[in-house]
Specification:
By secondary structure, the chain is α+β, with helices and mostly antiparallel strands. The chain has 4 domains: about 170 residues, Orthogonal Bundle (Triger factor/SurA peptide-binding fold), CATH 1.10.4030.10; about 110 residues; about 120 residues; about 100 residues, Roll (Chitinase A, domain 3). Helix content is about 50%, strand content about 15%. The strands form 5 sheets. Strands 6, 11, 12, 13 and 14 form a 5-stranded antiparallel sheet that branches. Strand 16 and strand 17 form a beta hairpin. The longest helix has about 35 residues. The chain is flat, with a radius of gyration of 35 Å.
Length: about 625
C-alpha cells in the first residue's frame, strides 16, 4: 500500500501535496478550515454543512496572497474588486465542500500510515535528503498550522485527489477516435494571401469632417469628473520609536525560543502489518525477527528482507531524523526510551508490530542571546506597536466619524492633513489616488455627495488613511481645438480600414466569379500546420475554418481584418491529411492525451452534477 503511494509520488500525489499544500496553502492561515468560530453568521450552507464567514474571509485573504506571491512587486492589492474576490472565494469553498462530500460518499480513504510516509517524503520537509522535524515545524508554523491541523487538511486534499484521479483516470477512447483526431491534428493546408494595407497616411480628413464628428459625438469629448482629496495617514512604523523592550523581556522571550528547540532522533524500523484477525500471526512473526536479531543478524538486512513498509524497507528501515509528535504515540514512546544502537522489544501501533532501532541523536543548535537579540527586540516592540496601531486606528475611525473635517483627527493623533492631485474615477498615477479602495470611497455617495469623512481605509497591513473630498470637479466639454488632432487621426484610421475592406471584398467577388487574375502578388504557404510559425494567428485561424476546396482549380476564398485595420484575402487551394498508419508510440501518445482530456471532462461533469443535485444556500 505504502509502496503504491511512493510510486505515485511523481504523479497526482506530488502535484496535489507539493503544488497545492506547500505552495498554495503557505499563502494563508489554516483558520480558513479549522478556526471558524462558533458564530451563527454563515456565508453559505452546502447540503447542511456550514461555511462560516471566518472561512470565507480567510479564503479571500488566500486569493489576495496568491496574487501577491505570483506577481511580486507588480501586485497592487488596491486593484482587486472585493466583490469579485468574495464571489470567487465562496464558489471555491462550496466546490471544495461538495468534493469532500463526494469523496466521503464514495468511501475513499487515506490511512494514517500513508499520511505519515507522505509527510516524511515531502521534499519541503527534508534537509540533506532526510526528513527534518525542525524544518517541518518551521514550515507549518509559517503557514499558521499546528501539526494536527496540517495532517487533517493534508488528508482532505488527498481524498479530493483520490476522487479526481478515480474519475479522471476512467477516461478512455477508441481507435477510431484516435485516428480521427490524428487526421485533424496532422492535417496541413496550402494557401496564399494578399494583404491590403489600411494606409491612414493616404487618407484625407477635412476640418469640416472632424468638426461634424465632434458635434455629433460631443458626449465623448468631456473632461473626466475629478476630485481633490484631503487625507490623514497613520503608519505602523511611526510607533516603533515610542516603545521599548526591557532586558528582562528579551531574556524571557529568548528562553521561550530555545525551549522550543527539540532533540531529533533517527529511527529505523521493521514493520509487520496486522489487522484484528491476524494480530497473533503478526506478533509471532515480529518475535521471530527479534530472535534472529539476538542471534546476530543485521538489522538493516532484516528490514530489507522482512519489513512490510516498502517506503523504508529498501533503506534498511531508515526513517531519517524526526522530532516529537511525528510518529504514532506508541512508536514514539518506545523510540525515546532507547539508547543509540539499541533495538526495542516488539511494539504495537495502529499500523502493526514494529522493531525499532535508534540510529542516532541530534541535539539542537542553541543560538546565543546576542545573536538573537535584535530579532527578539523587534518582535517585542512589534507586539506593542501592533496594539498601539490598532488603538490609534480605532481612534482615527471614531474621530473621523464624529468630525466635520479631518483637522481634529489629525490634531489628536499628531498627524498632518495632506492633499492629493486631482484624479478621476480611473484613479491617479501614484500615491493613495492609485489605490482602488480610496477611489471607491472618494466617489461614494457618502463622501462625494454628503461631504462626510470616509471610514478608515487600509492601504496595506501597516498603513491606514481617512479621506474627504476637498474639491469636486464636474465634467466639461473639451474645446474642439483641443481634441481636433485625435479626431482626425481616429477618422483616418477608420476610413483607411473601410477602404481596405471595400477593395478586398470587391477583389474576392471578382476572384469567385472567375476574374482570377490580380496585379497583386500572392504570398503562398504550403503544408501549413495548425501551429505554423510565421503566420498571423488570425489568418491561420481563418485558414483552418474554411471549407475544403472541391477541386484544385476551384479554391476557396475567405478574409480577415487584422487589429491594425489591414484586410487579408485568403485563398485555400488544398487540404492534406496524413495517409501513413500511426506508429504504436504515436497511438499511445494520442490515447493518453485524449483519455486525459476525456477524464478531465468527466470530472468537470461530475462537479456540475454535484452542484446541480446539492442544496446550496448563500447568505
Amino acid at each position: 500500500m505504502l509502496q503504491n503511494i511512493r510510486d505515485n509520488s511523481q504523479g497526482w500525489i506530488a502535484k496535489t501535496i507539493i503544488g497545492i499544500i506547500v505552495m498554495l496553502l503557505a499563502l494563508t492561515g489554516f483558520d480558513a478550515i479549522f478556526n471558524a468560530a462558533s458564530n451563527s453568521r454563515n456565508a453559505a450552507e452546502v447540503n447542511g454543512e456550514e461555511i462560516s464567514l471566518d472561512e470565507l474571509n480567510q479564503a479571500m485573504n488566500m486569493q489576495r496572497r496568491q496574487l501577491a506571491q505570483q506577481l511580486g512587486g507588480d501586485f497592487d492589492p488596491s486593484l482587486l474588486d472585493d466583490k469579485l474576490v468574495r464571489e470567487s472565494s465562496l464558489r471555491a469553498l462550496i466546490d471544495r465542500a461538495l468534493l469532500l462530500q463526494g469523496a466521503q460518499n464514495a468511501e475513499f480513504a487515506f490511512s494514517e500510515s500513508a499520511l505519515d510516509q507522505l509527510i516524511l517524503q515531502t521534499p519541503e520537509f527534508t534537509v540533506d535528503g532526510a526528513f527534518n522535524a525542525a524544518r517541518f515545524d518551521q514550515v507549518i508554523q509559517q503557514m499558521g498550522y499546528t501539526r494536527l491541523q496540517f495532517r487533517e487538511l493534508l488528508k482532505q486534499e488527498m481524498l479530493i485527489g483520490q476522487l479526481r484521479a478515480g474519475i479522471s483516470g476512467s477516461g478512455f477512447v477508441t481507435d477510431e477516435q484516435i485516428e480521427a483526431f490524428a487526421r485533424l491534428e496532422q492535417q496541413t493546408r496550402d494557401f496564399a494571401t494578399i494583404t491590403l494595407p489600411a494606409d491612414a497616411a493616404a487618407v484625407e480628413v477635412s476640418d469640416d469632417e472632424a468638426r461634424k464628428y465632434y458635434e455629433e459625438n460631443t458626449g465623448r469629448f468631456r473632461s473626466p469628473e475629478q476630485v481633490v482629496l484631503e487625507y490623514v495617514e497613520l503608519t505602523k512604523d511611526s510607533f516603533f520609536d515610542q516603545v521599548e523592550a526591557s532586558d528582562e523581556e528579551v531574556e524571557q522571550l529568548y528562553q521561550q525560543r530555545i525551549a522550543n528547540l527539540a532533540e531529533q532522533r533517527r529511527a529505523a524500523h521493521i514493520l509487520v502489518e496486522a489487522d484484528g484477525s491476524g494480530d497473533a500471526d503478526a506478533k509471532a512473526k515480529i518475535e521471530g525477527i527479534a530472535k534472529r536479531l539476538t542471534e546476530g543478524e543485521d538489522f538493516a538486512a532484516l528490514a530489507k528482507e522482512m519489513s512490510e513498509d516498502p517506503g523504508s524497507a529498501s533503506e534498511g528501515g531508515d526513517l531519517g531524523f524526526a522530532g516529537p509528535g511525528v510518529y504514532d504515540p506508541a512508536f514514539e514512546e518506545a523510540l525515546y526510551e532507547l539508547e543509540k544502537g539499541q533495538v526495542s522489544a516488539p511494539v504495537r501501533s495502529d499500523f502493526g508490530w514494529h522493531l525499532i532501532k535508534l540510529l542516532g541523536v541530534q541535539s539542537p543548535e542553541v543560538p546565543t542571546l546576542e545573536s538573537m537579540k535584535p530579532e527578539l527586540i523587534r518582535e517585542l516592540k512589534a507586539e506593542q506597536v501592533e496594539q498601539r496601531f490598532v488603538e490609534a486606528s480605532k481612534q482615527l475611525e471614531d474621530t473621523a466619524f464624529e468630525s466635520s473635517d479631518l483637522v481634529q483627527p489629525a490634531q489628536e493623533l499628531g498627524l498632518s492633513v495632506q492633499t492629493t492631485e486631482a484624479f478621476g474615477r480611473e484613479g491617479g498615477a501614484d500615491g493613495i489616488a492609485a489605490n482602488r479602495q480610496v477611489i471607491q470611497a472618494a466617489f461614494s455617495d457618502e463622501v462625494l455627495i454628503d461631504g462626510a469623512n470616509s471610514s478608515v481605509i487600509e492601504l496595506d497591513p501597516d498603513t491606514v488613511v481617512a479621506v474627504r473630498v476637498k474639491e469636486h470637479l464636474q465634467p466639461e466639454v473639451l474645446p474642439f481645438d483641443e481634441v481636433k488632432d485625435d479626431i482626425i487621426a481616429q477618422l483616418k484610421r477608420s476610413k483607411a480600414t473601410e477602404q481596405a475592406q471595400e477593395a478586398g471584398e470587391q477583389l474576392i467577388a471578382s476572384l469567385r466569379e472567375g476574374g482570377g487574375e490580380t496585379d497583386r502578388e500572392w504570398q503562398a504557404v504550403e503544408a501549413a500546420a495548425r501551429n505554423q510559425e510565421g503566420v498571423e494567428p488570425a489568418v491561420l485561424q481563418q485558414v483552418f475554418r474554411m471549407a475544403k476546396p472541391q477541386a484544385s482549380e476551384a479554391p476557396t476564398y475567405g478574409s480577415v481584418t487584422l487589429p491594425g485595420g489591414d484586410f487579408v484575402i485568403v485563398r485555400l487551394t488544398g487540404v492534406s491529411e496524413p495517409k501513413a498508419d500511426l506508429s504504436e508510440e504515436d497511438k499511445q501518445n494520442y490515447r493518453r492525451f485524449l483519455a486525459s482530456r476525456s477524464g478531465q471532462q468527466d470530472f468537470a461533469a461530475y462537479r456540475q452534477m454535484l452542484q446541480a443535485d446539492a442544496e446550496i444556500e448563500t447568505f
